[in-house]
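User: Please fill in residues for this 122-position structure.
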C-alpha cells in the first residue's frame, strides 16, 4: 500500500481529545483484510498517526523528504530501510531517516504509530 492511499482509508473522525489520558493501543482497532488509519495530531510541521494492519498488509516502498519515527504498539512488523530489515516488537521503535527508501512488511497483524517531523530546511 502507498502512503498516499492512507488518506483514503477508513478512520475515526477527529483527533484525540487534548489534555485527556488514553490507552495508545486502544486508539485504533483491527479490521479483517484492512488497513485503518487514525490521525492523532496533524500540523503543518508534522503529524502523528495510528495505523492497524490486518495479516498480510503493509506499506509499499517509498522515499520521504522527512524523518519518520515508527513505533510498534501491538504485534510485530519488519521495517526495511535502504534494504536492511529490522524486526520490531511491541514497544520498540525506529527512526526512518529522510531521503532513504523504506517500507513496512507484515509479521502478522500489528498496530503502529508513525510520527512525521517536517522541516523546510533539510
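Assistant: Residues filled in for all 122 positions:
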Amino acid at each position: 500500500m502507498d502512503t498516499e492511499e492512507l488518506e483514503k482509508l477508513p478512520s475515526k473522525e477527529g483527533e484525540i481529545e487534548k489534555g485527556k489520558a488514553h490507552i495508545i493501543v486502544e486508539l485504533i482497532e483491527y479490521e479483517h483484510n484492512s488497513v485503518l488509519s487514525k490521525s492523532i495530531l496533524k500540523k503543518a510541521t508534522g503529524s502523528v498517526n495510528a495505523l492497524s494492519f490486518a495479516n498480510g498488509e503493509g506499506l509499499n516502498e517509498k522515499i520521504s523528504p522527512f524523518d519518520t519515527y515508527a513505533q510498534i504498539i501491538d504485534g510485530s512488523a519488519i521495517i526495511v530501510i535502504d534494504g536492511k530489515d529490522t524486526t520490531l516488537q511491541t514497544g520498540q521503535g525506529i527512526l526512518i531517516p529522510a531521503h532513504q527508501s523504506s517500507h513496512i512488511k507484515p509479521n502478522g497483524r500489528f498496530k503502529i504509530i508513525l510520527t512525521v517531523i517536517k522541516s523546510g530546511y533539510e
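For context: Residues 3-117 form a domain with the Jelly Rolls fold (CATH 2.60.120.10).
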